[in-house]
Fold:
Amino acid sequence: FKINRVNIPINPNFNFSFQPCTEELPVLFSDLTTDFSQGPIQLWFWSFGDGSFSNLQNPNHNYTTNGPHIVELNVLSTQGCSGTIRDTIQDFSLPVINSNDSVGICQGQTTIVLNQNGDPTLNYQWAPASGLSATNIFNPTANPSQPTLYTVTVSSSNAAFNCINVDTVFV
Structure:
C-alpha cells in the first residue's frame, strides 16, 4: 500500500508593539502561533514589508521609512507543514519638517516660501503670525518687516496617536 503525505496548513498568529512618535519606528514582533497540530514550529521567516527579513521567533525591527508596511510571517513545523499570516503596520513616526534653520530673502525679493517641500497631509501651526501669508498651511510665504524667528508645530494624527514635532526657522 502507498502512504500519501498531506501538507495540512498551520494557522500562525503574531502581534507587534512599538513606541509611536519617534524619528524611527522600533517594533517588537511576537510569534503567537498556538497551532501545533502538525508538530512544533521549527522555522520562522518574517518579511517586514521594507525589504528586511528575519528568521528569529520574536524579532525586533527598526523602520526607517514611512509606511504602511505589510508584515508577513511564514512558519514551518517539524512535520513539514507551513502557514502564512499578513498584517499591516501603519506609520506613526514623528512628522518631518523640511525647513532650513535659517533662510534669507534675496536682494530684489520681498518674500520667501517656508517649508517648501513640506508634507501637505500633516497639520501645521506657525507663530508668530506677523509677516506670514497663513499660519496653518505647510508652506506659508514669509514677508517679515524685520528679522523674525518663526516656530512651526507639525502634527500627524490618526485615531490612536497624535505625533508632534516642533522646529524653528529664522528669516
In short: The chain is about 0% helix and 40% strand.
